[in-house]
Amino acid sequence: MKKLIPLLLCLALLLGGCGAQKTYEIAATTAPVWQFARAVCDGTGLEVSLVVSDSVSCLHDYTLSVRQMVTVEKAKVVILSGGSLEEFMEDALRDKDVLIECSGGVDLLEGEHDHEAHDHEEHDHDGEYDPHIWLDPDNAAVMTRNIADGLSALYPEYAETFSSNAEAYCERLTALKTEGQEALSDLACRDLITFHDGFAYFARAFDLHILAAIEEESGSEASAKELKELTELIRAENLPAVFVEQNGSRSAASILSRETGCAVGVLDMVMSGTDYFEAMEANIQAVKETLS
Hints:
By secondary structure, the protein is α/β, with parallel strands linked by helices. Helix content is 45%, strand content 13%. The protein folds into two domains: 17-101 and 130-175, Nitrogenase molybdenum iron protein domain (Rossmann fold); 178-291, Nitrogenase molybdenum iron protein domain (Rossmann fold), CATH 3.40.50.
C-alpha cells in the first residue's frame, strides 16, 4: 500500500498537468450563439465550446459550475448573446480581453411590454431590454454576421470563410422567417398567453400579440388570483390555447386547460441545444396547430 500511494500521486499530477494544458479557442455562452458560431467557423478547424449546456429556459438566476468557469477562463475569445442576458456571469468575464457581443445592431425590445401582464415581479429580468433576441430569425442573422465580423478581426486568415458561411446561414434564416410568416398568415387567433416572458421577439417576427406572460417555476407557481384572472381572460378573448416553454413548468397551464378547455401548446427557447431551425419550425407549427 505504501508503494501504491506515490504511484497514485504521480498519476494525479500527470492527469492534472494534461488538463491544465488544454485550451479552448472560442467559447459561446448559450446554445443559440454556439450554433451560430459553429456555422460561421465551419471548415476553419476552430473549436467552439458551449458554456451553458444545461436544459434551461431562463438564465436570470443561473450559476456557473466550476467546469463552466474553466471553459470561460481558458477561451481565447468568448462570444456573448448580449442584451444583458449574461449578467449572471459578469464576474467570470471581467478579466477576459476578447469578447464578441452579438446584440449590436439588433432592435431591442424593452423589458416591460405593452400588453396586459401577469408576471411574477421577482422573475423580471434586471436588464432594461428583453434579451431573448434570437427568437426572431432576422435578429439571428444580425447575430451571425456580428460573430463573423468579430472573428474575422481575430483570425483574418479565415475572414473569407467566415463571411461566406455567415451569408449562407443568413439565407436559411431569411427563408425560415418567410416560410413562418406564410404558415401563420391566416390564423383564426393571433393572441398568446405564454408561461415564459421571453417570446416577445418571436411574436413580433410573426405578427402575434402576447396578452400575458407568466414566469412560473417550481416554488413560484401562479397564484390563485392570477389563475382566476387568466381564466377570465381566456374566456373573454375566446383563446383556443396557452403556451408553456419546453423546459418550464406546466402546472398553471394544465389548470387553465381543465378550467377553460383550452389546449396547451409548447414553445422552445432554443436554449437546450436543439437545432435552431428545427426548434423554430416546431414553434411555428405549434402556433399554427393550436391557433388556426
